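FIELD: query
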Amino acid sequence: MFDLTPHDALPEELLQFRDSIRRFVEKELIPLEHALGPNGMLPPEQAAQVRERAQKAGFWLMDVPEEFGGQGLPLLALAVFWEEVGRSSVASWVRDHGLFGPMVGPILLGLNPEQRARYLDPVLDGSKRSCFAQTEPDAGSDPSMMRTRAVRTENGYRINGVKRYITRAKVADFAIVMAVTDPEKGARGGVSCFIVDMDAPGVTLATSEKTLMGDAPCEISFEDVEVPLANLVGEEGGGFRLAQGYMVYGRIRQGAHACGAAARCLALTAEYAHQRSTFGEVLARRQGVQWMIADAFTELYCARMLVYDAARKSDDGQAARVETFMIKTFGVEAGWRIVDTCMQLHGGMGLTEDTPIERFWRDLRSYRITEGPTEVLRTTLAREILKPYA
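FIELD: result
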């Protein structure tokens, strides 16, 4: 496989780490791609086998701090991990397989000791699952339009509202819910974060909507749901800041995964270009095809550097919010374009399930919307660029 990593882009230990993950993916994940069902999930028994092998190989709870029993990897190492795992459609982040441990995320890791015992620890040992509930029917990319309200009561808060497109809601034991506590402040100090048990009175799962990725996120209704004060995460009014931290983490993960998927599809396409002949000549010798592959590789290279840069800055304690905007507006879109190019060069075969390309194509298309639509982030990015010149 042709690869190009700039000098000093990754230290030697991360290069070795990358190679070990790649071997695991090629041996344990890629051979199972044919077993994925229409929903993109592995049969339970095969998923359990992968989890067991991942634990034995040391690829378990990679993003969980050591104090909680995890590997505690910094973001740059996680980006390398996510990219390599992203080379297989078996481990798509669109669907929660939990092949490398339960999905945790930065909000759960920031709980106070009492909340950790009730919610984080059960997630880590596999006895509970969570979902993240922020999006609403009228408040997707614009959180200032959020209508779910949390009103202070004598013993805590009363929540009313509706959340939509919530992944894992069907299987979750509790939800991390964003709700408005001060309408006048809006997103800047008026949104708070709560943990809501899914079996609490007033919590109802409404319709689920199947997506082109194969998953089926749900709508959750909250009607006079009583939430104890102990279930407030962080400070009142600090919810949007917590959500943004979740989004920054998610965008780096999305960008890394897009790079992995694009790299896998490019490798398949380069091999296919040497095999497929049209009008007496293999595709690899046609200038039009060569230019498409060259441009795709260049975009992959640039996207990967964006991901590494944002991850490294975050690890160094620097703000990387703007960099994650570019991961979305360039890197994620580039990943999807590359996969689309690979589909085109495979012709009719690219539309079939004989290759993983069509599944990568569907998954990466969703990334242009989730974790912040690229159009919204372009506007925000432009605002940051123009601010110093005002």
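FIELD: remark
The chain has three domains: 12-109, 130-233, 241-389.
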